[in-house]
Design goal:
Strand content: under 5%
Distance between the termini: 92 Å
Mean pLDDT: 76
Low-confidence stretches: 2-8, 10-20, 22-26, 217-221
Radius of gyration: 25 Å
Structural class: mainly alpha
Amino acid sequence: MSQTEKTNCCNTAAVDQEVDQPPKRKPRLGRYLLLGIVAVGVWYGIYANLATMAKWLMYSLLGLTPGQHLSSAIEFFIFETPKVLMLLTLVVFGVGVIRSFFTPERTRRILSGRRESAGNVLAAGLGVVTPFCSCSAVPLFIGFVTAGVPLGVTFSFLIAAPMINEVALVLLFGLFGWKVAGLYLGTGLMIAIIAGWVIGRLKLEKWVEPWVYKTQVGSAAPEERLDWAGRMRLGLEAVRDIVRKVWLFVVLGIAVGAGIHGYVPENFLASIMGKDAWWAVPVAVLLGVPMYSNAAGIIPIVQALLGKGAALGTVLAFMMAVIGLSLPEAIILRKVLTIKLILVFCGVVGLGIMIVGYLFNIIM
């Protein structure tokens, strides 16, 4: 047999072997649904009994005395740590599934060519559900501007994306109820829409770094079509990725909250963060800007502050400043914005946050 015939025979055998192999089966949706139902049942069984387990561990197993500062702080930490982490895991999975429908590239296409006003509303809404972090601020900004999205509409998106954090939203709902969560969502959207509209009216395109407008953005690769099984896999990947990154911030935030809960006297914070202290809201905003924390890490501190008498508007302003006016994001945006535009951005958003703080201190 010649060498060519041997090669052809080998190729034919390889093809036959590939044909004989059964096709790889994709995981079925039913399997994910069944596992999901079982997991949710186990999750709920544990979550519903966290308070009972924490008290048993504290006072039966460890023998601590109720009512003392140390025992109160430890009980807060033991109860809130699994509670917040369990809520966080559930929320991140759901958000991971939702985000599979809204990629940054798809968001850019939706906002391209949108007029202001309607574009500000749409951009703020998309900012809530679109994947965003401080490190992606620059490429998102360049992509939006070069795609023809107006500057004010772009800023509505950039404000809403970090400020209205879906993890914070669901954690607030789980810890404080729908009213506080609704206030956070509504006021955050209002700030993003109005601040973006104001920046658009000021016509500050000249304060964007010139090289941004010269950047050519290539066409995006075709987006992968996902079935529900694929979307659920993305949800699980989001849990592995995000929870692994933020759990330490969550535990540290709960530790700070435990210290406030156990050692700060009742209603002490009412004198410095209450409704009667007119300067409390701007001070809370100024304190929040240099702090760097994710939404999940700041929620336990918010819970402890409210429990010790701080006013809702003041605490809400503090939380929004930490999440929406972080110093690291401003430093990153300096690559594409002049210092003047960054100051305008921070000033407009900061003013909106303070107005919200004062408003809720008056009506709540």
